[in-house]
Amino acid sequence: FFFLMIRRPPRSTQSRSSAASDVYKRQLPDFSQEVLSRVHTLPGIAEQGPFDQLTINDYYPGQGIPPHFDTHSPFEEFFCSLCLGSGVVMSFKSHKGDQKHIFLPQRSLVIFSGEARFAWLHSIASRKLDKVDGKLFFRRRRISLTFRRIKHDPCRCAYPFYCDSQGYDPVDVKKKRKKGGEDIEKQQGISVGEITEEGSNPSELEKKYVYDVYDKIAPHFSHTRYKPWPKIESFLNGLEQSSIVVDIGCGNGKYLPVNSANLYSLGTDRSHSLIEICRERDEKFQVFSAESLQLPIRDSIADVAISIAVIHHFSNKAMRIRAIQELTRVTRIGGQILIYVWAFEQDKNFGSQDVFVPWHLQFKYEDNDVVNTSIKEKEDDEEEKASDKSKIEELDVEIDEGRKTVVYKRYYHLFKKGELESLIAELPFLQIEESFYDHANWCVRLRRLS
């Protein structure tokens, strides 16, 4: 949902600023008047004049905004944004390379002016949780109300390198050059930052709460994952002889031996530790470590691709679609794709679709320095206790002495009924052959059409 409302008075009234301001004030929505009555008294804004334009944005968890600064010419210097529904971390980057990450609490107001308005990039990362004071908070739906005042004369700010009124092309900002091809970074020391292809790279959330965790818990995890699920096993047993199967996110390789006399199976996983376990199980397993968002596999090489309990570890829609696109790319036209993702609708009530699911890693699988932390905390050496506490906070784990485990957090996006099919519907080269529920997972069997 996006709503933009601009109201201009007739040209004949634009010179009469007081009358125009009254018109603007009356034309902004009634619900904004209480906020405006307070904001208009703030220093700088009171002198500039009342706001006459409102933009309302509706953000869901996982949505963000790319690094940018507002174009200079359409609006006056001061503008402000009211944050409703959920707090969020907003990032700021100056033309000198300075960076700030500021948490905007629910019902807070951020005011832009001066250098921060004209020359600092601001952005919100596309993720579903933020880290504030060492603690992680899941985002909720957030509404922003951004108030501005329309500008009727050219901008004459002190930042010409970023000012469209002073001969600068906003398109060139993204290309890091001034009009005429001059390099901004040499002129001003700015680093605009790269925007990677959407969905092609994991965020810090995946790296810390999926990749790092599975590398850590791999031996213990493998001991609990030893038997193929019957429906998947039946699917593999029913494939044509000599079919090439790629298992993307193969874990400890429990599906690689299924129907091995008739299939050529290849496995990949992001966890180096799990790949090593695959090789220890059977040196003949054809496995290697790879990122499922950018598979180092040739196009259309496989007859069948399977992705079991992988895509629910990606924290936004772009990455989930990218993962399905990669499964499709490596599968030949006419080939099949089988996908399993954790279901929101299961016996356990998680309360939210985006959750941390604990893994209780037994002490015998954990490093001694982590396990011993719980013992050292009983000692009197304050310096040692502080050091050990810092290690635990860095890992973001808890010690459960009763169960003799270290508790790690794994990120999951739990799919609601029909959500997986909705993703598939955005990819016209795929056809759903079957949708079903199995082992607390929503599942689809697909056919590549083109």
Structural summary, described in words:
- A 7-stranded mixed beta sheet has the order 14-13-12-15-16-21-20, with helices on both faces. A 5-stranded antiparallel beta sheet has the order 1-2-11-4-7. The chain has a 4-stranded antiparallel beta sheet with strand order 3-8-5-6, with no helix packed on it.
- It has helices at 17-27, 33-39, 45-48, 114-118, 170-174, 184-188, 204-223, 230-237, 272-281, 317-329, 368-371, 373-376, 382-395, 419-425, and strands at 2-6, 53-59, 65-68, 79-84, 88-93, 99-104, 108-112, 121-124, 129-132, 135-138, 142-148, 243-248, 263-269, 286-289, 302-308, 331-342, 354-362, 398-400, 405-413, 430-438, 441-448.
- Mean pLDDT is 82; it is low at 1-25 and 174-197.
- It has 14 helices and 21 strands.
- It is α+β, with helices and mostly antiparallel strands.
- A hairpin with a 2-residue loop joins strand 9 (129-132) and strand 10 (135-138).
Ranges where pLDDT stays below 50 over 5 or more residues in a row are 1-25, 174-197
- Overall, the morphology is elongated
Number of discrete helical segments: 14
Largest sheet: 7 strands, mixed
- Percent in strands: 25-35%
Question: Structural class, please?
Answer: alpha+beta
Task: Summarize model confidence as the mean pLDDT.
Answer: 82
Distance between the termini: 33 Å
Radius of gyration: 27 Å
- Strands of the widest sheet, in order across it, are 14-13-12-15-16-21-20
Helix content: 25-40%
Number of strands: 21
